[in-house]
């Protein structure tokens, strides 16, 4: 009962997706909607997986520097598994609020501010325990410290002197250490001091009556007298009396100089009504976070002015009224809500067979061992092969699965129990800059070099890569010749994943560019001169291919031969085969030259009546010798590659060909293939 009762201030799990990890939130309010449902106003916490890698790397780097500078850090040797799981316990607080249905609550958890004096193993030993130390701003994509740093040192803290021995005198000059602002042993009595303060209030009231801006803010005499009775007027009067050695006549003359009475104002009078409204609105949104109040609502006010106004505002009736209203609203709001345990099956759950413990593909016994050896590890996290329940995890095409315990760990902590190869390959702050650059270069090359296959599914369809044109500048071309020893293009071409040191090449080119002026580079011609080409063509004349031409009967308009008519009536397979293969006959001698058939009278059935083939309504169709097809560019296949095996190697093919065919296929390969196809 108590486990399912959720109150304001509890840290809870929220489920927004059946496959994603739980959201971790803190309940701020419980509100009942018009339709009777309960909504929870919560504060958002973010995991490491929800924040960009650049911010995570900066945070880890800062934490490592602080740990190295700290002298009181507790050193604990953690294994790779513990370090991996400790990252799942770290959260990032935010100032973002959202409203979620209370029915999506899936349990309680505990979130605490990171304690530097406590061992990190304490967070791993406790279930459903998390910690945070930084604040994440989703809009600005920044990470800030949640608490101020303690300033240590003589610049920020006082040096405590040694304790004086008994009877030892303090030789320090007290006048330099402190300033006296009031003397309780003054010659004036308390009655005389009170009378002087009344005179100071009267002078302040008269000064407000003469001031136009004050008359607008305090239109009545009562409000002016109340404003003149504030602490700033009394402090100024007592300070004036002390400076004049408690001489009442001289102190009163200072309160009323020749220019007019002295007017003392505090922050309550300096602020306008609109500024006071902005302050109350900001206080409702940010609380006592005066830095955010100044940044977002009152940037023209100083931080000292805002803090001083806040403590004066707490003494007003406005603060008392708002406090009563908030107390009444808190009484009307829900304090707690009961959410029953969620028992509905998860859509990612893989059903078992006949209630038996689920295994990989339902295999049991020896057959299970045989299949397990083929498919490998079952659980992607703990690598177990047996579990009472399995859950599909990851993309559907990957067909990954988790066991019951690892699925619960994934939902609560947003990761896998055991570190995977992907996690090991990720960049960390401890890696050198050169190694990080190499890994980034390798991942980029591997990503660009992976062929994209289209499976026919709309989900797997990707856009064609955008073509680009690489225009090499003259300086780059010259650098290839000047910096050959440093560049080593052939070695670099065989090692595409190793980055090229461009800085060294630029430095060498800057030192040796003067060599170009004295010794101009000779660029090798990539094209032979025209005279060499003409001489080669005279010695090796090209063979004219034997083009197959149509017979003269097709060009004669008086011929009575018809083209092969299309079969409109009979569904026999004879119409779909060559005429030389009908009835098992093969006229190989005349097959190469026979391209036209004599049309015999055929009977076509039209609406139950016989129709002679000589009628004009008969449609004829030509059967071309070679049917030319043009492939649609949308149906073009992806890029492919050919791997030569022992059966398709050059020596094996060369042994099958005669000398004549080998020479013909090497010089005029397409003509030879065309001749083989035609007959």
From TrEMBL:
Keywords from the UniProt entry: Cytoplasm, DNA-binding, Metal-binding, Nucleus, Phosphoprotein, Zinc, Zinc-finger
Feature: compositional bias, Polar residues: 443-458
Domain ELM2: 148-259
Places the protein is found: Cytoplasm
Biological process per Gene Ontology, one example term: regulation of DNA-templated transcription
The SANT domain, residue ranges: 266-318
Protein name (record): Metastasis-associated protein MTA3
Domain of life: Eukaryota
Main location: cytoplasm
Residue ranges of every copy of the BAH domain listed in the record: 4-147
Region ranges (Disordered): 420-458
